[in-house]
Specification:
Elements lengths: L2 E12 L4 E10 L2 E6 L7 E6 L4 E4 L1 E6 L12 H4 L5 E7 L7 H9 L5 E7 L28 H10 L4 E8 L10 H15 L3 E5 L18 E2 L11 E2 L4 E2 L1 H9 L2 E2 L10 H9 L23 H10 L4 H6 L3 H6 L17 E14 L5 E15 L2 E3 L10 H7 L18
Parallel strand pairs: 1-4, 1-5, 6-7, 7-8, 8-9, 9-10, 10-11, 11-14
Antiparallel strand pairs: 1-2, 2-3, 5-15, 12-13, 15-16, 16-17
The structure holds zinc ion.
Length: 418
C-alpha cells in the first residue's frame, strides 16, 4: 500500500476517537488512510516529521468573518485560517438572505479553507455593520423590516450544503437604540426553529436580559463571545461569580463559545470561569479586519489563552475539533481522523513563550506556552503556513486599552503583566 503523505512520530490528539498517542497518520487520495503505530515510511511519497509536535484533526473555527471585499469585517480566510491550521471556518452572519449568493460565489467557492456560514437574520447581513463604536455607521437591525424569519429560513433551506445556523447580534447600538432588539431576537429564534438549526447570538450592551438570552435559548443554540466583560457578561460584577441563569443554560445544552474578536476575551472573566470549572463548549476566534493583527491574532493564539487559564490540552483540542463539528451537525464529516474522512490534518507546536500576552482590553498575563501552527493539510493537500506580522502588536495593545473603562468585570488596575 502506498501513501501520498506520512505524518510521522507526532503526538496525535483526536478527541472524537478518544485517541492520544504517538502514532503515524497516512493520507491517500485526499482521505485519511490509516492512523497507526510505525507505518512504513518507504511506502510514502512524502514524509512529514512531526516528532515533538501535536497532530490533530483539521481545526474548526466556529466564528470568523470571511465575506472578504464585500463586508467591512471580511478578510482573506486562506491567509488567516488555513494558513494558521484551520481547515474549516464558519462565518458568523456576514451574509443575510439578500447577500448570500455572493457569499457562495466570492467567498465559499473562492477559498481553499472549507467555509460554512450562519445566515444573519438581517437580510443584508453585516454589509454595513462596521467595527462598532462608530455611531455614524448604521447597524443591521436599525429597521425591523430587515429581519424576516420566512425569507431567512427559505434561504437556509435552499443552501443547506453551506448554511449551518442563524446569527443575530443583540446590541442596542445596532438596533435603533435597542428598540428593535427583542422582536428581532424573537424572529431569529423563529427562523432557527423553522429550519431546526442552531441560533448563534452575540449579546452585549443589550436591552435583552440574561433571563431571556441565554435563559430562553434552546439546547444546541450558541452564545458566542462568552468571556466578554461588558454589560451582559456571564459574570455578575457584584459577586464576581457566574450568573445562575448562565450555569442553568449550560446544563440545558446551550453552547457557550469564545468568539474572541476585538472586545470579547477578558482575562478576568476567563479566570473566574476557570475557577468555577465553566469551560467553553467551543473555542473560536471571531477573526475579522479589526482582530487579525491583534488583539486576537489567530485561532491557535486563542487556544493558547485557554490553556493559560487551565483548560486541559485535550479539552482545548476537543473544543476546536469534534465538539465544534457537533455544534453545527457536521460530526459525520469533519472533526476527527477516522480513516475514510477527507484528510484535514493540523500539526501544532506547543512552544515556550514566557512573555505578557494581552486580552481584548490590554489586560496582561504572563503566558508560558503558545500553540503555533506548523503544518496543515486540507483534503490531503498541504497549505503554506502564514506568519503573524506584528506579535505582540504594540499599536493594537495601545488602541485596545481605550475599551478598558467600559468593562463591568475587570482587573483592579491595568498592569503590564510582568
Ligand atoms: Zn463576529
Amino acid at each position: 500500500m502506498r501513501y501520498d503523505w506520512l505524518i510521522r512520530g507526532g503526538r496525535v490528539i483526536d478527541p472524537g476517537n478518544h485517541l492520544d498517542a504517538i502514532v503515524d497518520v497516512a493520507l491517500q487520495d485526499g482521505k485519511i488512510l490509516a492512523v497507526a503505530e510505525a507505518l512504513d515510511p518507504g511506502s510514502a511519497n512524502q514524509v512529514f516529521d512531526a516528532s515533538g509536535m501535536l497532530v490533530t484533526p483539521g481545526l474548526i473555527d466556529l466564528h470568523v468573518h470571511g465575506y472578504d471585499l464585500v463586508t467591512p469585517l471580511g478578510l482573506d480566510i486562506d491567509h488567516y485560517c488555513l494558513g494558521r491550521g484551520v481547515t474549516t471556518a464558519v462565518d458568523a452572519g456576514s451574509a443575510g438572505c439578500d447577500t448570500f449568493a455572493g457569499f457562495r460565489a466570492f467567498a465559499a467557492e473562492r477559498f481553499r479553507t472549507r467555509l460554512l456560514a450562519f445566515l444573519h437574520i438581517s437580510r443584508t447581513g453585516l454589509s454595513f455593520a462596521g467595527l462598532g463604536g462608530d455611531s455614524e455607521v448604521p447597524g443591521e437591525l436599525e429597521a425591523l423590516r430587515l429581519a424576516n424569519a420566512r425569507d431567512c429560513a427559505s434561504c437556509v433551506d435552499a443552501n443547506r450544503d453551506l448554511l449551518v445556523g442563524i446569527k443575530i447580534r443583540l446590541s442596542s447600538s445596532i438596533a435603533d437604540a435597542g428598540r428593535n432588539e427583542a422582536e428581532a431576537f424573537r424572529r431569529a429564534q423563529e427562523a432557527a426553529a423553522t429550519v431546526a438549526l442552531p441560533l448563534m447570538v452575540h449579546h452585549n450592551f443589550s436591552t435583552v436580559p440574561l433571563e431571556d438570552c441565554p435563559g430562553k435559548l434552546r439546547a444546541g443554540d450558541i452564545w458566542t463571545h462568552c468571556f466578554h466583560g461588558f454589560p451582559r457578561s456571564i459574570v455578575d460584577p457584584e459577586t464576581r461569580r457566574i450568573h445562575a441563569v448562565v450555569h442553568e443554560a449550560g446544563k440545558r445544552g446551550v453552547r457557550f463559545d469564545i468568539g474572541h474578536g476585538q472586545g470579547s476575551f477578558n482575562w478576568t472573566v476567563a479566570e473566574i470561569a476557570a475557577a468555577e470549572g465553566f469551560w467553553p463548549w467551543t473555542i473560536s476566534s471571531d477573526l475579522h479586519r479589526g482582530t487579525a493583527e491583534g488583539p486576537c491574532y489567530d485561532l491557535p493564539m486563542v487556544m493558547s489563552r485557554l490553556l493559560h487559564v487551565g483548560m486541559p490540552l485535550e479539552a482545548v483540542i476537543r473544543a476546536t475539533t469534534s465538539d465544534a463539528a457537533a455544534c453545527i451537525g457536521w460530526e459525520d464529516r469533519i472533526g476527527n481522523l477516522s480513516p475514510g474522512r477527507e484528510a484535514d490534518v493540523t500539526v501544532l507546536a506547543l512552544e515556550d513563550f514566557d512573555q505578557p500576552l494581552e486580552d481584548c482590553q490590554s489586560q496582561m498575563r504572563r503566558v508560558k506556552q503558545l500553540l503555533r501552527p506548523r503544518a496543515v493539510w486540507r483534503a490531503g493537500i498541504p497549505a503554506k503556513i502564514t506568519h503573524l506580522r506584528h506579535f505582540p502588536n504594540p499599536e493594537s495593545i495601545a488602541h485596545q486599552r481605550q475599551q478598558w473603562p467600559r468593562l463591568i468585570v475587570r482587573d483592579a488596575a491595568l498592569s503590564e503583566g510582568t
